């Protein structure tokens, strides 16, 4: 199947997640494209939509190589085996983390505009992206969601390689991928429109879902 756009992909994915409706859950979109997909899932499941902010901690002398990740609430996940193998001193780890925490705080204010994050404690976190390629961001997001108190972590995406199920076995309770084609080279191959999602769309969708839930609880 070729998705028209991320909204279409989200509606297809939501059809596979209907069994979750009625549970205490939060749909967590990974910015930026995952929020577009996640909005459709959250609407179908009548759930809050949140953004899960994850920042990779890059090896100081090779930033594209991850030595860990950080999330909100002071959460830090470190790949201690890699750090030990590369001999990275704690002072350099702290320096990288400080820089990434500043960016994390900036993103939180930018995307939420002062609104409090929807808490994950005691809820199912449905982590949504627009597709899984390497899955590095979603892999980092899973333990962060658990550390934020999620009872259960589910990873959901419209498309991804078949081996993705194995990658998430240790960090997620369930993985739902709408399409797992034999030939998978890039996520964009399965979308007619895969233009980058602007920040404004992310902010608008978060606000729209927040307003929809408010109106459903307190109808005029």
Question: Would you give an account of this structure?
Answer:
With about 220 residues, the chain is of the alpha/beta class. The chain has two domains: about 5-55 and about 115-215, Rossmann fold (3-Layer(aba) Sandwich), CATH 3.40.50; about 55-110, Ybab, Chain: A (2-Layer Sandwich). It is built from seven helices and eight strands; from the N terminus they run αβαββββααβαβαβα. The strands form two sheets. It has a five-stranded parallel β-sheet with strand order 2-1-6-7-8, sandwiched between helices. Strands 3-4-5 form a three-stranded antiparallel β-sheet. α1 (about 5-15) crosses α2 (about 35-45) and α2 packs parallel to α7 (about 200-215). The radius of gyration is 17 Å and the shape is globular. The termini are far apart. The model has no long low-confidence stretch (mean pLDDT about 95).
What is the N-to-C succession of helices and strands?
Answer: HEHEEEEHHEHEHEH
Q: State which percent range the strand residues make up.
A: 15-25%
Supply the number of structural domains.
Answer: 2
- Given as residue ranges, the uncertain stretches (5+ residues, pLDDT < 50) are none
- What is the subunit organization of this protein? single chain
Taking the sheet with the most strands, its summary is: 5 strands, parallel
End-to-end gap: 41 Å
Under the CATH scheme, the architecture of the largest domain is: 3-Layer(aba) Sandwich
What count of helical segments does DSSP give? 7
């Amino acid at each position: 199947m070729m998705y028209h756009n991320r909204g279409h992909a989200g509606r297809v994915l939501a059809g596979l997640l209907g069994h979750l409706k009625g549970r205490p859950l939060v749909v967590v979109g990974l910015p930026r494209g995952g929020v577009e997909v996640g909005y459709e899932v959250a609407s179908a499941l009548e759930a809050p939509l949140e953004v899960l902010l994850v920042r990779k901690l890059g090896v100081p002398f090779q930033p594209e190589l991850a030595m860990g990740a950080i999330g909100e609430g002071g959460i830090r996940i470190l790949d201690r085996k890699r750090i030990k193998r590369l001999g990275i001193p704690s002072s350099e780890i702290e320096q990288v983390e400080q820089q990434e925490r500043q960016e994390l705080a900036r993103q939180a204010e930018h995307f939420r505009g002062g609104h409090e994050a929807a808490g994950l404690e005691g809820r199912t976190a449905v982590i949504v992206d627009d597709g899984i390629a390497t899955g590095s961001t979603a892999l980092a997001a899973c333990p962060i969601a658990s550390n934020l108190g999620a009872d259960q972590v589910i990873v959901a995406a419209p498309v991804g390689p078949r081996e993705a199920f194995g990658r998430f076995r240790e960090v997620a309770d369930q993985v739902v991928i709408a399409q797992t084609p034999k030939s998978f080279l890039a996520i964009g191959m399965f979308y007619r429109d895969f233009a980058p999602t602007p920040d404004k769309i992310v902010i608008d969708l978060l606000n729209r879902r927040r307003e929809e839930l408010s109106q459903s609880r307190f109808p005029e």
